[in-house]
Design a protein that fits this description.
Layout lengths: L5 H9 L4 E11 L2 E9 L3 H4 E2 L19 H11 L9 E6 L3 E4 L9 E7 L3 E6 L1 H13 L7 E8 L3 H13 L6 H7 L4 H12 L7 E2 L13 E2 H12 L6 H18 L1 H7 L5 H7 L5 H15 L5 H8 L19 E2 L2 E2 L3 H15 L5 H12 L3
Parallel strand pairs: 3-7, 4-8, 9-10
Antiparallel strand pairs: 1-2, 1-6, 2-8, 4-7, 5-6, 11-12
Helix pairs in contact: 3-4, 6-8, 7-8, 7-9, 8-12, 12-14, 14-15
């Protein structure tokens, strides 16, 4: 049997007498010491390891690396060199840790440096995608290596503890809802356009939920910011126009759509209540807004001149948006509930294309054929 500890013993001999020294602040959690330090980015790829993804999950201490996320995170760093933000990495040190405090009492007891032999292993418990992105970015921009990232060090006490550490760190992690992401994103021009519509447009002003991506049954809002963002994304996709023209075009487009959907105006004039409109009609739901955006995009790709595109969309006024319309069953509504799946969005788009006499793309036709056969 191969001795799995042999490589580790060789490393201990090779690096005997050599050590890493980190400036650190000492803290206590659950009766255990931990340390907060700063590490130059250039050290991150060489010092911090993550488990081989080919190892069985039960003997790993973290999830597999999602390689598709790494270039996106790296590009975020490279495209925003003056204001990117990465939160701290969390790592376990499998080896001896010695803390040297700067004073014997007071706050100095918590400040000092930790010494770790170079034979020790630093295992990422949280932040393996950030670590991989840093490595990726350094290859393109080596000067980033002089910048630093915060690291929280725990003293490793074995696989079970490392696995529990990973589970605890991720147990209560909640991804922010998409609406608040759109609300706070200052880099995305489409997010800025969508916020402008929500805050200034006569169609949407005071009727868009800015923080949540779902509306409660009693909400007085008619739309969510995330739904409006997706609709604008579909509407403007592939159009070669600058930001100002995009703002103007989106404003004009939704104002025209508003003229074709009387219930929206009735909510603004308080002749109908928003909860009643959402309950009885589809046109304020995300799936409908996105579908309207997609059929609008097909027209705008031909011409952004109002005199050209408005007449080609007038037939949307003839759409029966009532949820009781049996045509929606299996398209926008599945089992009595509105669905936002890719297939349902496409089937809703197909329905509107038929109303507007637009051709289906090959993918849309495939999904439509499956629906007609009863496969979907």
């Amino acid at each position: 049997m191969v001795d799995q500890r042999a490589p580790r013993r060789k490393a201990e001999v090779a690096f005997a007498g050599f050590e890493y020294v980190f400036p650190a602040i000492r803290g206590i959690q659950a009766g255990r010491e931990y340390f907060v330090s700063m590490c130059p980015l250039r050290l991150i790829p060489t010092m911090f390891v993550f488990d081989d993804e080919e190892i069985a999950p039960e003997v790993r201490a973290q999830r597999m690396l999602n390689k598709s996320r790494v270039p996106v995170l790296a590009r975020y760093i490279l495209d925003n060199p003056d204001d990117y933000v990465f939160s701290a990495l969390t790592a376990s040190i499998d080896g001896t840790v010695t803390f040297e405090q700067v004073a014997e009492d007071g706050i100095g007891m918590r400040i000092g440096q930790i010494r770790v032999p170079m034979s020790a292993r630093f295992l990422i418990n949280d932040g393996q995608h950030r670590r991989a992105a840093i490595e990726h970015a350094l290859k393109e921009q080596p000067d980033l290596g002089d910048e630093t990232i915060a690291v929280v060090f725990f003293h490793d006490v074995g696989l079970a503890r490392s696995q529990q550490l990973f589970a605890d760190l991720n147990r209560h992690a909640v991804r922010p809802c998409r609406s608040i992401g759109v609300l706070y994103d200052q880099r995305d021009d489409l997010a800025a356009l969508t916020r402008l519509l929500a805050l200034k447009s006569s169609v949407f002003k005071q009727h868009v939920e800015m923080e949540r991506s779902t509306l409660s049954a009693r909400s007085r809002k008619l739309f969510t910011l995330s739904a409006l963002y997706s609709a604008n994304q579909s509407l403007l996709q592939g159009l070669s126009i600058d930001r100002d023209d995009a703002d103007s075009l989106a404003q004009g487009f939704w104002a025209f759509i508003d003229s074709l959907i009387p219930e929206w105006e009735q909510v603004r004039t308080r002749r109908m209540a928003a909860p009643d409109v959402r309950r009885e009609y589809l046109h304020s739901h995300s799936i409908a807004l996105q579908a309207i955006g997609r059929v609008g995009n097909a027209v705008l790709r031909d011409s952004t001149d109002v005199a050209d595109w408005q007449p080609r969309l007038k037939s949307l006024a003839d759409v029966d948006w009532a949820r009781t319309n049996p045509d929606w069953e299996g398209r926008a509504i599945v089992g009595g509930r509105v669905s936002k799946s890719h297939t349902q969005v496409t089937l809703t788009v197909n329905y509107l294309r038929r109303v507007l006499d637009q051709r289906l793309s090959p993918e849309e036709q495939r999904i439509e054929d499956a629906y007609q056969r009863g496969d979907s």
